[in-house]
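During the first year of the project, the team set up a workflow for recording each protein of interest as an amino acid sequence followed immediately by a discrete structure-token representation. This format lets reviewers and collaborators read both layers of information side by side without switching files. As required by the reporting guidelines, we include two representative entries from the current panel. The first entry is reproduced here exactly as it appears in our internal archive.
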Amino acid sequence: MTRSKGHYKIKISPNPFNDILLIKNSIPFSKSVKCFIEILNASGKVVEKNSIEFSAGEEVKFIDTKNISAGFYIFKCHFENEQTQTFKMIKIYYRKCLL
């Protein structure tokens, strides 16, 4: 994967997700980058806002989504350079069955 200067890449997993989202970044510079996160429901309403500071190189961050109900979501990450990455995500309800 080729990255040009000024472009940041993130990957979100798993999809579908349960209570935790993993965000893996790839920052090709020697500085940190801030990402402003919005999670929107199917109606377009923002249900979660957050910001994450990514260091240069590769790094994994976590977002707790326990307060979000099951359903379809749009995940947006707005970077400082005005670049935005958008992902379609599905949250499922999963509960372990104890016997």
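The second entry, processed by the same pipeline in the following quarter, appears below.
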Amino acid sequence: MGRSEAIGVWKYIGRLKDNWDKQIILLLVEIPQDYQYEFYTRFYEKVNCDNKQIIVLDLTGHDRIKDGYVFTLAPGKSLPSILFPLDGPGLPEWCRSRGCMIIMLVRRMDREDKLLLKRQDENCRPPTLQPCNIPTERVDLLSTPAERQQQSRLLDPRLDKNLTRHSKCYRPHHLFREMPHLFDDISAQFSSGDEEGLEEGELLQ
């Protein structure tokens, strides 16, 4: 785990806006109400001590994750404009009165993701989805083909019509399934006190 200048990180994130091979995932760290509260508070203060720098996570063991960062937001402060538009609900109400900590991951998109975006661009009807990917809702067989296609898009959470290049519809539980040890590794780095400085150029490697 290390630190990098915040301005360099946000410039790097800005370069990914038109990059179809990467996606930005934002995960809000909820404030624990049990014995982990002291641990959370200690790490929050560690991240929040210098708003000109951002914590850089070492996730080299996870091939699907290119980069990982941790940053904090003061009470009532919004996300950096470079992260908009969001594909999701945004910050919850409690962030207006309390500071929050956010994990930002840069995920490498796989072949299935790229094909999905290609279908989205070409306005093609998506292929039949596995039952585990869509809610169990009835499709009206008397509707027109265009209506059935639109309904199929609404049923598939990956085909949200607000999909953008910068922030693809991607649920946190998919991360647990795809990389079950990811959050264990992040937690281990939270508890470690070792830090190393990084230069802006290292972000692009």
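For the second entry, the following points were noted during internal review. Confidence is low (pLDDT under 50) at residues 128-142, 151-171, 197-205. The two ends are 16 Å apart (CA to CA). Both points are flagged for discussion at the upcoming steering committee meeting.
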